[in-house]
Each structure stands twice: as C-alpha cells, then as structure tokens.
Design a protein that fits this description.
2 domains, three-stranded antiparallel β-sheet, about 5% helix
Length: about 150
C-alpha cells in the first residue's frame, strides 16, 4: 500500500493522507458581542435579548434571528442553574483539540432562562447523569489558559 494511504483507526477503511501540514488560526469578528467575552473574563455569563420581540439567545447573537432586528441587542446575565439533558464522552477528538485529554461534553437546560447550553462537563463530575442538577461556571482552562464556561456541580 502506498505511504499516502492509511487505515482509519475505527473503520479500517482506507484514507488518503495529505502529506502537507495545515495550521489554521481563526479570526472571528466579535465587535457586536464583545461584551460577552469581557463579562466572561469577569466570571459572568451573558446572553442577549432582542429589544423588539424579547427573544433570548445563548450564545449571544448580534442580531435577532426571530424578528430580524439588526440594532443593538440587550445583554443580560444568565441564571446559570439547571439540569443536564444529555452528555457524551469524546475519545476521537478533532485535530484542534488533540492536545487535550479525553473529555465529556453535555447539553444543560437553564431552567429559568429556558435556554440550552452546550459545554464541556467539569472533571469533578465523575459520573454525569441525565436530569442531575447543574450550574454553569466560568474558569480558565488549564491546557491553554482560555476563559471558558463549564457544566459543573451547583
């Protein structure tokens, strides 16, 4: 078999291997939701609310996808208590997360906000259970010092 053909680890199907390395760094404009990141650095998780129709969004949106309003959205702190809807353990990671160990992600429902949040589950939750009470917390990720939010114990 040529060196540029490899076997997929799970399916054992043949894969074409491109011998070039690809290093991608994204720059995403966030000027209209910058307040979210500033608040996150202070430990506060913000959502946005449309001043016209009242729709609420998380992650924050720069415009309203419900009514089409494109002016300034209102930022508000989320009530971060809720329960776990579902979770999964990630073993086969995308290349951009290959420097991290295996991790668990989940979807939490914030009860008072009626919003679902996708996030990593804190390692302190050894055995997550659907329906368990949770809280969303902000911390610095050890691996890259990024400020992120986690599903955590209340």
């Amino acid at each position: 078999m040529p060196e540029y053909i490899a076997k997929d680890e799970k399916s054992r199907n043949p894969l074409l291997v491109d011998m070039r390395s690809l290093n991608i760094r994204y720059r995403i404009p966030v000027s209209r939701i910058e307040k979210f990141y500033e608040s996150l650095d202070r430990g506060i998780i913000m959502g946005t609310k449309c001043p016209v129709c009242g729709s609420r969004f998380f992650p924050p949106q720069a415009w309203c996808s419900e009514c089409g309003f494109s002016g300034d959205m209102e930022f508000y702190p989320l009530d971060t208590h809720g329960h776990l809807l579902t979770f999964t353990r990630i073993f086969a990671k995308p290349k951009s997360f290959s420097g991290f160990g295996d991790y668990t992600v989940g979807i939490a429902h914030l009860d008072r906000e009626n919003i679902n949040v996708l996030a990593w589950i804190d390692d302190a939750i050894q055995k997550p259970e659907v329906g368990m009470e949770i809280s969303i917390k902000v911390e610095k990720r050890k691996e890259d010092n990024a400020t992120v939010y986690f599903i955590s114990k209340p």
